[in-house]
Design a protein that fits this description.
heterodimer, A: 142 residues, mainly alpha, 5 helices, B: 189 residues, 7 helices
Amino acid sequence: MYKNPILRVCTKILFAPIILFGLYVQFHGDYGPGGGFQAGVIVASAFILYSIVFGLNEGQKLLPPKVNLVLLAFGAFLYGAVGFITMLMGEPFLSYNVLGENYQAGQHLGILIIEFGVGLTVCNVMIALFNSFSGYQPNQGS
Amino acid sequence: MNIELIINAFLVTLMLGIAMSLLRTRSVIFTVILTSAYSLIAALMFITLDAVDVAFTEAAVGAGISTILFLAAMAYLPREEEKRINSQLIPALSCIVLGAILIWCSFDLPEIGLASSPIHLHLAPDYIIGSKNDIGIPNVVTSILASYRGYDTFGEVIVIFTAGIAVLTLLQNVKKDKKKIKKKVIKNV
């Protein structure tokens, strides 16, 4: 945790734009460079920056560890669920074309959902790794 | 063409310089920072190859988040590496020989971006035309990653998920064990 006012104010100013940029990369991945992997890392970096400057406890108030773990699993679940929904609709695993009115609309929707799942998992794995590394205290008490 | 050559030569020189200083430094924090700089230069090289998606990933993951995770993990490492005892002659020789073989082989590679090279003739035309007509997404990389190769990406997500869960389990078990040990110690006292 840093008492330096410049760091604290800059972090508060930067937090929202970093997440906004992450969302842009996430949902603009169909049209430009980017996608779930990059967006997840960018959003995670906003939370990690907050944890570094304001301390791990404040960071965990912002995103409680339980919510973090649920979202971590939910991203991968979302991806698999899309695959099984397409199977229930009578097409092979992960054939998005049945999701929409026509072939292209289905593919658009499917790609958007699975990219969101990828972003969610990557983002929460990174935050969880950072939290567990910085909260881990070896060689104490034993 | 000439400008591209100059840019590539500049980037390769920077990379070589970073690699050399990585070999010489013994301080862990310098190693982490230099690795991050190396990733950033690699991202720039991907941009000169017009692979913006890969460059973006390299900059965000290689230079960004992995540096932060290394720094977070660094608190549990000694500040300096131990001094080497073994001779470096054999590893250096094997690196030089392998590098020479790779450079020798690279003369047989087709020119970068040549449309008639084998790699651009097999599946790539199908993907480029299919991405435009069937899927309707301008970014071919996204349509390959999410639709044509959806299984592979699912596998990648599962790998990341499993790795995250494994690290969490390893680190949290240690914490719980220590609490138990503390309780036992208190009871015994």
